[in-house]
Structures are given as C-alpha cells and as structure tokens.
Predict the 3D structure of the following.
Amino acid sequence: MGMNKTMGLALLMGLGLSACVSERVVLLPQADGRPSAVIVRSGGQEQLLDQPYETVKRRPGGLSGTDTMSKDEVQSRFGEAIAQMPERPVRFTLHFLEGSTELTPESREQFQALREELARRQVAEMLIVGHTDRVGELKANDALSLERAQAMREALKAEGIDAERVEVAGRGEREPLVKTADEVPEPRNRRVVVNVR
C-alpha cells in the first residue's frame, strides 16, 4: 500500500470453551477522506477491504463474508479502543534557497504550520531528512543535505522542541522529487522532509 496510511481495528472474541477464536477487522476511514485499503488473510483465503467501515471476521479456518458497519455502530463497539490509538503520522516538506540552509519564503509559512502541529501534539518524535538538487559534487550535496536537516532541527530546538526526539539524515541528491540531469537546478529537490510521529 506504499505510504497510504491505512488503519484497521481488530477485536478478539472467544467462542464458548472451544479453541476456536475469531477476530473482526474493520477498515476505518482516513481523516482526510482519501481512499485506503487493507488485505485480510486467514486459512489460505484473503479478502480486500476498501470501503470505510467494511468488515470481515477472521477464523482459524478462513474468513467470513464482508459486511459494513455504520459509523455509530463502530463507535459504540470500538470507541474506547479507537480513543487509545496514537495520532497518525504527518509529513511536512520545506524547501531551501539554492546552495543554502535558508528556507524559501513559502516554506517559512510551512514552518509555522509545523510548529503549530508540534504544539498541538503532546509527545512527538521526528525524522528530518535533507535533500539537494543535482547541482554540485555528490560529496558536497551529501554534506549540504545533512546541514539542512540539522538546521531544521536547530530551528525547532529554538522553538522549544526537545532535540532528543529528533533524528536527522541527509540523502544528498540521491532521492530527487523531480528527476533531472546532472547540474540542473531544481527548486523542488532542495528540501527537507519532516516526518512527525
């Protein structure tokens, strides 16, 4: 499913005194309304759930047919478990001026949105990955991408974010957002990606 943030909720229920146990899998909708899906497997069978609140029971011998629960029914039966789930990860992409660790004016606004998200979350861990375009030597771009990630960590630290919760890495020009020939300046590749989880 790639980067698609898919969530399923399983509930285990014992049936009588026998060793037979089943679990129900319910596909929860994405907070942003994007489509999601999950494949459920049991006893050599598999079932795709790709509609919000679609459900299937897994048993040791296989799967029951699919069904759909209402939002209210899911909340009534599983609301307490759902409330205990951690917040979904979010991602911010901020861009830099060419050859520097200075954010573009548009990304300074995005930095504000990142700060607001971090203030809203009680505990957050972050991975900041720096990138460059293909202008310059590979070794210099490796160093610049790491400097960009470290500069972002320092900017967040200056805002009161615990730097111990922040990992940084640099990828240089190896993972371009937009593929270009060597020595082509591409502003969208000069970036850091901040994953908040």
User: Anything to note?
Assistant: Confidence is low (pLDDT under 50) at residues 1-19. The first strand starts at residue 7 and ends at 14.
